[in-house]
Design goal:
- The complex is a heterodimer.
- Chain A is of the alpha+beta class.
- Chain A has two domains: 76 residues; 91 residues, Alpha-Beta Plaits, CATH 3.30.70.60.
- In chain A, 58% of the residues lie in helices and 27% in strands.
- In chain A, helix 2 packs antiparallel against helix 3.
- The relative contact order of chain A is 0.10.
- The mean pLDDT of chain A is 88.
- Chain B is α+β, with helices and mostly antiparallel strands.
- Chain B has three domains: 203 residues, 2-Layer Sandwich (Nucleotidyltransferase, domain 5), CATH 3.30.420; 81 residues, ATPase, nucleotide binding domain (Nucleotidyltransferase, domain 5, 2-Layer Sandwich); 93 residues, Alpha-Beta Plaits, CATH 3.30.70.
- In chain B, 43% of the residues lie in helices and 25% in strands.
- Chain B has 14 helices and 18 strands.
- In chain B, strand 7 and strand 8 form a beta hairpin.
- The longest helix of chain B has 70 residues.
- Chains A and B meet through helix 1, strand 1, helix 3 and strand 3 of A and helix 1, helix 12, helix 13 and strand 15 of B.
């Protein structure tokens, strides 16, 4: 009996360790099951979220049809008013077409134009024409029709006795989708 | 300790080692045969032994004369092989002396008896053993007397060598007469009664001793006798037996001693225990009851310790738990793997769903961004109405005011300069007009322009009138109509 006291104790310890191993094995499986359940819950929640987001996206997309149509109409305009050379050329052509004499003209990129609570890059174009009033009004109307996105920032008529001079400043927005 | 733990776990510890003299022979050889070798002076007797129900069962005895150490060992090996025995029991029937002693101490247990007799016999004998001898003791059942048998170590050594040469393990080495005396005293004490004489005779020796309830007489013995000498010795012993007393006779000599006793003493009460036994001395050697037989083997045996039955539940518990562990480990590993696989699938699904959600959100943001751009463009257009129309309308108002003044024969005002300045990014506009002429003429013109603004939906923010070199300067800050300019 005495010879087997330590071996018996060792065997008991091994038995205990095996018992611990059994518990650990069950705990491990339980943890894996818990992780799977948690992941299942996450997936379910994600499914619901996705469905909700997709519904919202669909609704938003339906609502955006009008604005997209509007945008597509104006997007081309925005592109066509991008070239300053083209703008100058057309303004000159319109002035000449209205029998006006274009005088000084210049342009400047203004990146700090404040619009709708933020800075919008615009191309400021200054141009002066001389002629009678009606021709200048016609030229102005033609320019505004040719460049519907251009905003007439200021016009200044000066009567010098013999002739009437019109100095106009246009703002051409470069882009609207500022991030 | 590792080996012992393994033995315990595998159950080997509960199987007694064949060499373990602290365990009865019946237990050690419960499932295997044993060869009993009785060594006489003039030969050997080999008897195969098996145990059934804890009792020895003896096979047919074979005798052989001494033929030299090697030949004897060969004969023993051959017999052992025939009976598939790997161990032997040696019974020394010769070479002993027996003396009466009152100095012996009773051992407290069989274990102490065997171990002390092996390592320090003087502690049981009460004195040093005879030189060159190994002793065994048979105590009086009730009193402190004992018969000490001594065997010569050289004869013990020869027996050990024979067993070794035969390739057999030596399960026990005993003095047969000592074992027989102990067996008879232990099992037939009631037959011994108040006074008896013991007469033990085998094929070459005679042992006699008187036994009373409280004492032993001096043992008398003759050993190594040939047949005729044995008969003569028996006759002499029988003649010296006390008349009318009880006689305890164990006889394996083949001589009809009982008849001899009755011839000498017709009134004698003769008890013959073990009479039905073919091998009464070997039966005593193999009995191990009530005490384990002594082992005269001179050295210490290396044996595997024997575990008691108290420890039996331990390996059962261990293997049960191990089996449960294996089962649980396998099942849970399988379950966990399944859960992990399922979790991986779900994680993948969650990633896809998250990606889908992000894509939907991105699409929404894109739509929102486009809507914002569209809204910005719309706002831009709202704050950028055509100036040509306004200029024409202002001009018409100026002309109307002039025509009205001419019609009413009042002074007219002349436009010196006109400017429209829009506030940066705001739905605001400042009209600055210099009207040359007197105050009423200038006012008339400006009033018409103001009322034009009102009609168009412009709201006045600020209005200033200042004197200009040839007339008056009007500055009118207005907000554009909220719904845009028609």
């Amino acid at each position: 009996m005495k010879s087997y006291t330590l071996p018996a104790f060792l065997l008991l310890v091994l038995t205990g360790l095996l018992g611990l191993g059994i518990m650990k094995s069950f705990r491990g499986a339980g943890r894996a099951k818990g992780a799977m359940s948690a992941e299942q819950a996450t997936v379910d929640a994600d499914r619901r979220d996705l469905a909700a987001v997709q519904r919202s996206a669909k609704a938003v997309a339906q609502k955006a049809v009008e604005s997209d149509r509007f945008l597509s109409r104006w997007d081309g305009e925005l592109q066509s008013e991008a070239s300053i050379e083209d703008i100058f050329g057309r303004l000159d052509s319109l002035a000449v077409g209205n029998l006006l004499a274009p005088s000084g003209k210049n342009f400047k990129l203004n990146t700090s134009y404040f619009f709708n609570g933020r800075h919008l890059p615009v191309q400021n174009v200054n141009i002066a024409v001389a002629g009678d009033f009606y021709r200048t009004v016609n030229w102005l109307g033609a320019a505004e029709s040719a460049f519907p996105l251009a905003r007439v920032e200021q016009i200044n008529y000066t009567n010098t006795g013999n002739s009437l001079s019109l100095a106009a400043q246009f703002s051409f927005p470069r882009k609207f989708d500022l991030k | 300790m590792i080996q012992q733990t393994l033995d315990l776990a595998l159950g080997r510890a509960f199987v007694p080692d064949p060499q373990d003299t602290l365990i009865p022979l019946a237990k050690r050889f419960a499932r295997k045969p044993l060869i009993a070798v009785t060594i006489f002076k003039d030969g050997y007797e080999f008897v195969p032994v098996t145990f059934a129900g804890g009792l020895p069962v003896f096979g047919a005895a074979q005798t052989a004369p001494p033929a030299g150490e090697d030949a004897d060992a060969d004969a023993l090996r051959a017999l052992a092989e025939r009976f598939k025995a790997k161990d032997c029991l040696i019974n020394l029937a010769t070479g002993y002396t027996a003396v009466l002693s009152s100095r012996t101490r009773r051992p407290e247990s069989d274990e102490e008896a065997i171990l002390l007799m092996r390592d320090s016999p003087e502690r049981l004998l009460g004195e040093a053993p005879a030189h060159g001898c190994r002793p065994s003791i048979v105590s009086h059942p009730t009193h402190n007397f004992a018969v000490v048998f001594s065997h010569k170590e050289n004869e013990i050594g020869s027996a050990v060598v024979m067993a070794q040469k035969a390739g057999l393990g030596l399960a026990r080495l005993q003095c047969g007469m000592s074992s027989l005396l102990g067996h008879v005293l232990a099992h037939y004490w009631s037959e011994v009664g108040r006074d008896a004489e013991l007469l033990f005779v085998d094929r070459s020796s005679v042992f006699t001793m008187a036994v009373t309830e409280g004492s032993f007489s001096r043992p008398l013995f003759d050993i190594g006798l040939k047949e005729s000498a044995l008969k003569q010795a028996v006759v002499e012993r029988v003649a010296k037996l006390k008349r009318g007393g009880k006689k305890i006779l164990v006889n394996t000599s083949g001589i009809d001693i009982e008849a001899m006793i009755r011839e000498e003493d017709p009134e004698a009460a003769i008890a013959t225990p073990l009479k039905e036994q073919d091998q009464p001395i070997l039966r005593a050697c193999c009995g191990d009851k009530p005490r384990l037989g002594y082992d005269l083997f001179p050295g210490e045996r290396t044996v595997r310790p024997h575990a008691t039955n108290q420890l039996r539940p331990l390996p059962l518990l261990f293997w049960s738990v191990a089996a449960v562990f294996l089962a649980a480990f396998s099942i849970n590993t399988f379950r966990s793997a399944g859960y992990h696989r399922q979790t991986a699938v779900l994680e993948n699904q969650a990633r896809n769903l998250e990606q889908g959600k992000k894509q939907a959100e991105a699409a929404m943001q894109e739509v929102a961004a486009r809507s914002k751009v569209a809204s910005d463009i719309a706002d831009w257009l709202l704050i950028s109405p055509m100036t040509q129309t306004l200029l024409i309308q202002i001009n018409q108002e100026i002309q109307a005011a002039t025509e009205e003044a001419i019609k009413e024969n009042k002074p007219v005002a002349e436009v010196g300069s006109l400017s429209l300045v829009r506030q940066e990014g705001q739905p605001q506009m400042r009209l600055a007009i210099v009207l040359n002429g007197d105050s009423s003429a200038a006012n008339r013109v400006f009033q018409r322009i103001s009322s034009l603004f009102s009609r168009l939906g412009y709201s006045t923010v600020d209005l200033r009138e200042t004197v200009a070199p040839q007339g008056f300067r009007y500055e009118h800050l207005v907000n554009l109509p909220k719904g845009g300019v028609l």
